[in-house]
Amino acid sequence: MSEIDSSAAVSDVLVSFRGVQKSYDGELLIVKDLNLEIRKGEFLTLLGPSGSGKTTSLMMLAGFETPTAGEIQLGGRSINHVPPHKRDIGMVFQNYALFPHMTVAENLGFPLSVRSLNKSEISERVKRVLGMVQLDTFAHRYPAQLSGGQQQRVALARALVFEPQLVLMDEPLGALDKQLREHMQMEIKHLHQRLGVTVVYVTHDQSEALTMSDRVAVFHEGEIQQIANPRVLYEEPINTFVANFIGENNRLNGHLLSQAGDRCVVTLAGGETVQALAINVGPPGAPVTLSIRPERVCLNSHSEYCANRFSGRVAELIYLGDHVRVRLEVAGKTDFFVKQPIAELDPALGVGDVVPIGWQVEHVRALDPLLEAH
User: Fold this and answer.
1) How far apart are CA 95 and CA 118, in angstroms?
2) Would you state the pLDDT for residue 197?
3) What does the pLDDT read at residue 338?
4) SS3 letters across the chain
5) Phi first, then psi: what are they for 267, rounded to 5°?
6) Of 277, 261, 250, 256, nearest in space to 332 by CA
7) Strand pairing partners for 278?
8) CA gap 282, 303 in Å, rounded
9) What pLDDT was estimated at residue 83?
10) In CA terms, which of 92, 140, 286, 352 is 20 to 30 Å from 22?
11) How far apart are the first and last CA of the chain?
């Protein structure tokens, strides 16, 4: 599947994957024909479930894995046979990988001393990068004397201290608790904006990918399913896998009745018809999966002007502070969810109530049917 972006001028491209494949046993491809261009200064996230090929792709770029086929270019030259330490790439891992017997300053100075910088230059750069990650007063502490968040900042500083053109991050926040993780997401994002360095980030956490990235590449079974900015990925998924993997998604299965331009009509199992955007459909009669985000479904009087109107029976109300998730039985499905902001919720709504619901044509996408096994 080709993902080469013709809009990116050649001079803007820092990394280029060209027909890259990876197999460990000569048969099963972990990465299949990867074509991807990464622009200078962008924050690109590789997102996908375990085993989707995202980490293997990152490790090939880092030089810790060798492509079975294809070529990886950095700054216009092939790096397939360039060892990791000669690629001018900074790395941040989940386990920090700090030297326990070295102070923070010594940890940061190490990548510079192996590059034969003089002591005053090393001292100057270490001081500058400590300021960047707000750890100025921690230079003489050892890793064991730091919290998890502080250790991760040191690891980040060490990846930036030799001023690489590219920084790779593999699940760097996976070991942190939720609050610290969210704080560090913003720290990394702001640091990237200030420095303008190119970042390739790997995660399986879709909210992290949406929060931090300029573009996100969604991987599944060794291939990029879609690559786009976070808003497009969430609002305009091109297949059912992306719709399900990015955010919450209601799915209704049916068959294509008719199509006119970018609109179509789908018949559900119970005989109901739905007007939808025809994004990825076959001929009339072919199976279709409809995708509707929970926050795009209107309840009660809000549904009056919707093109698609149904009724649903309230099965469960789940209180989440700023909003309530309402689980409904709709068109034969028992797990159809509506997200209601707390300010808009009818306080009289109760389990067992049958309520009108609806959604606009532009908020329901007709996509390929996804086998339940996935």
Assistant:
1) 29
2) 92
3) 96
4) CCCCCCCCCHHHEEEEEEEEEEECCCCCEEEEEEEEEEECCCEEEEECCCCCCHHHHHHHHHCCCCCCEEEEEECCEECCCCCHHHCCEEEECCCCCCCCCCCHHHHHHHHHHCCCCCHHHHHHHHHHHHHHCCCHHHCCCCHHHCCHHHHHHHHHHHHHCCCCCEEEEECCCCCCCHHHHHHHHHHHHHHHHHHCCEEEEEECCHHHHHHHCCEEEEEECCEEEEEECHHHHHHCCCCHHHHHHCCCCEEEEEEEEEEECCEEEEEECCCCEEEEEECCCCCCCCEEEEEECHHHCEEHHHHCCCCEEEEEEEEEEEECCCEEEEEEEECCEEEEEEEEEHHHCCCCCCCCCEEEEEECHHHEEEECCCCCCC
5) -100, 130
6) 250
7) 366
8) 29
9) 93
10) 92
11) 20
Please give the pLDDT value at position 369: 64
pLDDT of residue 191: 87
Query: For residues 267 and 255, what is the distance between their CA atoms, to the nearest angstrom?
Result: 5
pLDDT under 50: residue ranges of the chain: 1-8, 371-374
Query: Quick one: pLDDT at residue 371?
Result: 46
Amino acid letter, residue 29: L
Distance CA 301, CA 355 (A): 9
Q: Could you give the C-alpha distances from 116 to 97, 111, 124, 162, 191, in angstroms and in order?
A: 22, 9, 14, 11, 26
- Give the Å distances, CA to CA, from 106 to 86, 118, 263, 272: 21, 14, 62, 68
Identify which of 354, 364, 318, 366 has the alpha carbon closest to the alpha carbon of residue 338. 318
Q: For residue 162, what are its two tokens?
A: 């030799």
- Amino acid identity of residue 288, one-letter, is V
Please tell me the predicted confidence (pLDDT) of residue 174: 83
Instruction: Please name the residue that has the structure tokens 């070529």.
Output: 71
CA pair distance 362, 374, nearest whole angstrom:
26
Predicted confidence (pLDDT) per residue in 151-161, tens digit: 888 988 888 88
Question: 54 Cβ partners below 8 Å, 6+ apart?
Answer: 46, 47, 48, 202, 204, 217, 219
Cα(139)–Cα(150) distance, integer angstroms: 12
pLDDT of residue 10: 58
**Tokens representing residue 88 in the block:** 């001018």
